[in-house]
Design brief:
There is one protein chain. The chain has 407 residues and is mainly beta. The chain has 4 domains: 21-121, Immunoglobulin-like (Sandwich); 134-226, Immunoglobulins (Immunoglobulin-like, Sandwich), CATH 2.60.40; 237-328, Sandwich (Immunoglobulin-like); 347-406, Immunoglobulin-like (Sandwich). It is built from 1 helix and 31 strands. The chain has one helix at 2-22, and strands spanning 25-31, 40-43, 56-59, 62-68, 82-86, 96-97, 107-108, 116-117, 120-121, 134-143, 150-153, 169-176, 179-188, 195-199, 213-214, 222-226, 241-248, 257-260, 271-272, 274-275, 281-287, 289-295, 315-318, 324-328, 347-351, 354-360, 363-367, 373-378, 381-384, 391-397, 400-406. The strands form 9 sheets. It has a 4-stranded mixed sheet, with no helix packed on it. A 4-stranded mixed sheet has the order 12-13-10-16, with no helix packed on it. A hairpin with a 2-residue loop joins strand 12 (169-176) and strand 13 (179-188). It is globular and about 60 Å long. 27% of the residues are buried.
């Protein structure tokens, strides 16, 4: 009997070891620029929560962490991993950039033994430096053709150029034959994190043709910039043209709405097309250049699709090239059957760049408009999201959805 018990015990121990050995462990290793004080990992495996997965320091330029695949969200595996690195916790101001300071796509897991390389940080987090809240005068010299100038950035949640508080003042005294000078005093909660960019018109289509700018001297009360190039320069309201856009929609379409750069992609000011007797739709309005998409309802979930059900690229209409455009909508999204959030059952609050919900019975989920998971938590009762950037998000609670906006 004792021998049988010993064999059984050994078998159980072996089985436990075998199960442990079969559990997949995934190691992330990254080489970073100096100075770097911390490295944080964020991705679909942790609900894109940018303040919960801190990596271990190997030396001044290398960090690593090993995670158990069993802890990943919603069945994410090494094959479906998407992730990025940050130099600090809880703020996308610390996200990695390419060598020119531009945006990079989400990473795919390269496999065991491969070292990722971060070329540059948007902002280097330094745990030994306290936030610097202050007013900063921004001055900039631009080409003479620029008649209106806007500035937006981390300090205001990256509002669309043309939004309240983004327009700069022309400095006639300091302007000359070579160019115009503009200025605006901004208030930032932390000069260490403040990135910003200029736009030569009231829309993102007029943004500067270069990477974001930074406050390099946080002790200074003003910064001076020279911005020689923009993607496009706004010609002024008097030069806007009356444009007609004719739209052929799928059979049975009752309504077509437009959302685009002329509304700051804010998800609130939907432009309705006029339905014609032949079932087509027409939009007539003044503009210079817009980027846009079509929707079959005043909601992001109604976005047009390709014939095979995929997302479409932003459309573009340039009034300097034509004043009549003819578009064809290939398909609308298939009905999802997802119920709308019952506001009598749930209390939703948006404050301080977070979303709070009361009445949760099983799960809180938050997505951006690309469908990327920002946060996914199984919980009961009340829950408050992580701090968010300005924009529109899709909130899903216990399987029901609602659109929310962070300003």
């Amino acid at each position: 009997m004792k021998k049988l018990f010993t064999l059984f015990t050994a078998f159980v121990s072996w089985l436990a070891f075998a199960n442990q050995a079969s559990a997949a462990e995934i190691t992330f290793t990254v080489e970073v620029p100096t100075p770097t004080y911390e490295v944080w990992l964020v991705g679909n495996f942790n609900g894109w929560n940018n303040g919960i997965t801190k990596m271990n320091k190997v030396d001044d330029t290398h960090y690593t962490i090993t995670l158990d695949e069993a802890t990943f969200n919603d069945g994410i595996t090494a094959a479906t991993l998407k992730y990025k690195y940050l130099s600090g916790p809880g703020d996308w101001a610390y996200v990695e950039k390419n060598e020119n300071g531009g945006e990079i796509s989400d990473r795919d897991y390269p496999g065991a033994g491969v070292t990722d390389v971060v070329k540059k940080w948007a902002t280097v987090y330094n745990p030994n430096v306290a936030p610097i809240e202050k007013d900063i005068l921004i001055e900039v010299y631009v080409p003479k053709a620029v008649k209106e100038l806007y500035v937006t950035g981390w300090h205001n949640g990256w509002k669309s150029p043309g939004s309240e508080g983004t327009k700069m003042t022309w400095n006639e005294e300091m302007s000359d034959e070579g160019g115009n000078e503009f200025f605006l005093t901004i208030h930032t909660p932390d000069a260490n994190k403040t990135a910003y960019k200029f736009a030569a018109g009231p829309s993102w289509v007029y943004e500067q043709d270069s990477a974001d700018l930074k406050i390099t001297d946080t002790s200074a009360d003003k910064v001076y910039n020279f911005m020689p190039k923009f993607k496009r320069i706004y010609p002024g309201e008097a030069a806007l043209k009356d444009v007609t856009i004719n739209v052929t929609a799928p059979a049975g379409t009752e309504s077509v709405y437009m959302m685009g750069s002329h509304f700051g992609w804010d998800g609130t000011s939907w432009q309705a097309g006029t339905k014609n007797q032949d079932g087509t739709f027409t939009f007539v309005f003044k503009f210079d250049l817009i980027e846009y998409k079509y929707y079959n309802k005043q909601d992001w979930t109604g976005e047009e699709k390709t014939a095979d059900g995929k997302g479409v690229e932003n459309r573009k209409a340039d009034a300097q090239l034509a004043v009549t455009f003819n578009d064809v909508i290939a398909a609308w999204p298939a009905p999802s059957g997802v119920p709308t959030l019952d506001t009598d059952k749930y209390t939703v609050r948006v404050a301080n760049k977070t979303v709070s919900v009361d009445g949760i019975t099983s799960k809180f989920e938050l997505y951006d408009l690309t469908g990327r998971t920002i946060q996914s938590v199984s919980t009961v009762g009340s829950f408050t999201s992580t701090t968010l950037n300005a924009g529109v998000y899709i909130l899903r609670v216990d399987g029901a959805t609602q659109k929310v906006m962070i300003r």
